[in-house]
Amino acid sequence: MAMAMAMRRAAALGARHILGASSSSSSGILRSRHMSVDAAAALERIRAAGLLRTQGLIGGKWIDAYDGKTIEVENPATGEILANVSCMGSRETSDAIASAHTTFYSWSKLTASERSKALRKWYDLIISNKEELALLMTLEQGKPIKEALGEVNYGASFIEYFAEEAKRIYGDIIPPTLSDRRLLVLKQPVGVVGAITPWNFPLAMITRKVGPALACGCTVVVKPSEFTPLTALAAADLALQAGIPAGALNVVMGNAPEIGDALLQSTQVRKITFTGSTAVGKKLMAGSADTVKKVSLELGGNAPCIVFDDADIDVAIKGSLAAKFRNSGQTCVCANRILVQEGIYEKFASAFIKAVQSLQVGNGLEESTSQGPLINEAAVQKVEKFIKDATSKGAHIMLGGKRHSLGMTFYEPTVVGNVSNDMLLFREEAFGPVAPLVPFKTEEDAIHMANDTNAGSLSDPVYLNYYFFLFSLVCQAL
Ligand code: NAP
């Protein structure tokens, strides 16, 4: 009993419970005795669609971890164990790389049109299984079902886009400086790509990496987050059904440092693409140096949202709400600081609090829910630490500021007033449903505060990416 509780606690803190070979069920699917009816029905629907995969995908085959170990995937809204997935490491990753490397020779030789057709079919299958994928995402990640459906469209759009772009990978002819020379730029796929993705967009972060890689003829080894592997595996199943050949897309999950090291050390992996925390991104960048891999990183953020005295208050409230509370504040483009000019501060704060009060916290499977749980106990503890730090330095809680009465990892949508630049809430990503309001006097002050961060720089594509996403969020909000 004590041991079970200790395991539960470890899982709640973000360290998932890894089971030995003998503990895993043959199907890989476990049912908690307390499985809620809705979750059970949703799982059944996903299983009936053939999309409840629990093994890794290597060379087109669904494979258990070689030592039989599994890892629990939990529903953060209820603590229910949804499934036991293979807990893989370096050996499985090496085999996945070998399979991707072999397939690279055939996949890269196809015409762009042939690759495009397979990608388009994958897109069609994702869309026709939209509801099952969204349910799976809500179950393992916790985001409200409406947001999950939105993510399926968004995630699928990358595949659709790159299915088209596959046919437009043009080269260049450059005027030479010597009359007897010709300068031609021919674009070639780099080879095997290692793609490491986070839990907050379980589908879109995968399709955004795999779509362009496959389109130009690369093959891929994907490592999804241990918190949300089920969506990744379901998407990979649909890729196989679409005719993307065995070995072109491989999925391994489990021991992240081991898998990461295997990808970094392999000379066959020519590129690493990663979305996740800055700390892990730095490790991957350093680890890529030995084999001189290309690296693309999308890391953490500290996005400001600025409201001036002359803002249309309704538009500002709507935009700020959307920018802050999407996925309960757990996105890299969430407004981490809301800077509000002094003349409108009080009016904005009271209208904003009213709007935040209307957010419905609950299980994402319920239609009315707009705020799901945080991903795990560690995420809640991080928010608590930030709130404690802010209040000890003079900020005041205007709304929320504590765990939600629903328990688990639910946290009350929170508004904190008088936040200043010496507080963690200002300096670091809270990654939770906490809106810090920061008063400012002049436009110069606001720009200075907005740029008072080490996240991004004007020449950094990640920074531009934020603008793009914020822009699209604002457009959605309007
Ligand atoms: P994370 O802890 O960095 O994890 C991201 C991925 O890296 C997961 O698959 C994780 O595996 C894996 N990983 C962890 N340690 C590793 C290692 N030593 N070697 C190789 N892989 C390793 O980040 P997260 O908590 O999942 O995601 C939240 C962060 O992502 C936030 O900072 C957010 O801003 C950022 N993000 C950025 C964007 C963007 O577009 N810029 C988009 C989404 C998220 P396990 O989960 O299995 O441990």
From TrEMBL:
GO terms for molecular function: succinate-semialdehyde dehydrogenase (NAD+) activity. Residues 62-456 form the Aldehyde dehydrogenase domain. Coiled coil: none annotated. It is an enzyme of class 1 (oxidoreductase). The active site is at E298. It catalyses: succinate semialdehyde + NAD(+) + H2O = succinate + NADH + 2 H(+). Keywords: Oxidoreductase. Its EC number is 1.2.1.24. The keyword Oxidoreductase applies. The keyword Magnesium does not apply. GO terms for biological process: gamma-aminobutyric acid catabolic process. Pathway: Amino-acid degradation; 4-aminobutanoate degradation. Belongs to the aldehyde dehydrogenase family. This is Succinate-semialdehyde dehydrogenase, mitochondrial. It comes from Zizania palustris (Northern wild rice).
